[in-house]
Amino acid sequence: MGIEDWRLEEFFDVYAEAQRDFDADATARLWGLPGMVITDDFAGALESRADMATGLSSSFPLYRRLGFEGIVPELRAVSALTDVISMVRVRWSYLDGNDELIVTSDVEYLVRDDAEGLHVYLAVGIDEADALRRAAAARGVDLDAG
Q1: % of the chain with per-residue pLDDT over 70
Q2: Euclidean distance between CA atoms 49 and 62, whole angstroms
Q3: Residues 131-140: pLDDT tens digits?
Q4: Which of 12, 21, 125, 146 is the most exposed place for a label (fewest CB within 10 A)?
Q5: What residue segments make up the domains of the chain, in order of their start?
Q6: Cβ contact 128:107 at 8 Å
Q7: Contact 105, 128 (CB under 8 A)
Q8: Which of 128, 145, 144 is nearest to 68 (CA)?
Q9: Are 39 and 125 in contact (CB under 8 A)?
Q10: Kind and range of the H or E element at 144?
Q11: Which CATH architecture has domain 5-138?
C-alpha cells in the first residue's frame, strides 16, 4: 500500500533540480491545487500555479545571497496513508558551488499520486526559518538587508 519509495525519490530529485535551477514554474508544476504551506510563522493556500510560482520565487533572492547552488533531498520517513497518498519527510541539504554543505532543513510533504503523476498538496516546514538563520550567521549574511 502507498506510493513506492523509488517513485518518491525520483519525484523529489526532480523537485530538487527545479529548485537548484531557481525554476519556480517547474517547481509549481509539481504541486497539486490548492497547495498549502504551513510553518511556525506562516499558513497559506495557493489556488493557481502562477500564485504558487510567485510564492516559490520569493525565496530565491535569499537563497542566492546565502550561496545555495545545489540541493539534495533525502527521504527520512514515508508513511502511506492510502494507496495514493503518503506523508513524506524530506531532509534538504543545501550546498554551495563547491558542493560543501551550507545547511539542512526538514519538511513534511503530503504527496498524492494523481492521474498526471505525483504532486505535493501540503508542505509543513519543520525548521526552515532556523536553518536560514543558521546559514546566514555562518555566511555573514544580514537577513534584514534586501
Answers
A1: 99
A2: 22
A3: 989 999 988 8
A4: 146
A5: 5-138
A6: yes
A7: yes
A8: 128
A9: yes
A10: none
A11: Roll (3.10)
pTM of the model: 0.93
Q: Which residue has the higher pLDDT, 43 or 143?
A: 43
- SS3 call for 82: coil
Encode pLDDT of 42-82 as tens digits. 899 999 999 999 988 998 999 999 999 999 999 999 999 99
Is there a contact between 32 and 11 (Cβ–Cβ < 8 Å)?
A: no
- DSSP assignments along 27-70, one per residue: HHTTEEEEEEEE-SS-EEEE-SHHHHHHHHHTTHHHHHHTT--E
Nearest to 122 by CA among 86, 91, 94: 86
